[in-house]
Amino acid sequence: MSPYEGNDRCCRGCQPYRRGCCCIGPTGATGATGPAGPQGNTGATGPAGERGSTGLAGPTGATGPTGATGPAGVTGATGATGATGATGATGPAGLVVYEGPTGPTGPTGATGATGAAGNVGPRGAVGSTGPTGPTGATGPAGETGPQGVQGIQGIQGEPGPEGPVGATGATGPTGPAGATGPTGETGPQGVQGIQGIQGEQGPAGPTGATGATGPTGPAGPAGAVGDIGPQGVQGIQGVQGEPGPAGPTGETGVTGPTGPAGPTGATGPTGETGPQGVQGVQGIQGEQGPAGAAGATGATGATGPAGEVPDDIFASFANLQMQFSPGTQIAMFPDVADPTGNITITDFTRINLTAGYYLISYEVSVIFSTANYMQVTPYYNGSPHLETGVYFATRTDGSSACGSAFLILNAPSPTEFFLTYSGSAVGREGQVTLTVLKLRRS
Question: CA 405 to CA 432: how far, in whole Å?
Answer without folding.
Answer: 12
